[in-house]
Design brief:
- This protein has 156 residues and is an alpha+beta fold.
- The chain has one domain: Jelly Rolls (Sandwich), CATH 2.60.120.1140.
- 15% of the residues lie in helices and 31% in strands.
- Strands 5-4-6-3-2-1-7 form a seven-stranded mixed beta sheet.
- The longest helix has 14 residues.
- The protein is globular and about 30 Å long.
- The N and C termini lie far apart (49 Å).
Length: 156
Amino acid sequence: MNRSLVFSLALFAAACKGKDSTSPNPVPVTIPVAFTGGTITARVAATDSARTAGLMNVSTLGANDGMLFVFGTTRVPSQCGFYMKDTPTSLSIAFIDVNMKVISTDEMAAETLTVHQPPGDCRYAVEANSGWFTSHGIVAGSSVTFSLPAGTIIDP
């Protein structure tokens, strides 16, 4: 085989290994998540791997920063549990139903394995700095609004 053909085949193979158009973007996507008492700029965690990683190993968040966990289907409480393994900062969590209402909020201590789950079925959860929901008057029944970016890949 001549060198130019080998080189062309190598370039073609390298181009074929590129990222395909259906792969999720590795750059964190952030969106505003608005509650009746304030707004969080949240990273979106909509895939299994992103939800599993969550805010593990994140030592600081901005005052109004957090993470929005998106589930592809409504989940019973036992399937919507969160804990703080490898999470060095304490966080608050709000569990949200399919109607975009807060089901409950909870405080989660850093580096603990206590499972926190809602009292009812949830579709979303938002983690923020410890005390954020209480200090902003967010309680069960509070309304939530956000729009996921077009093309967001959501694992069930």
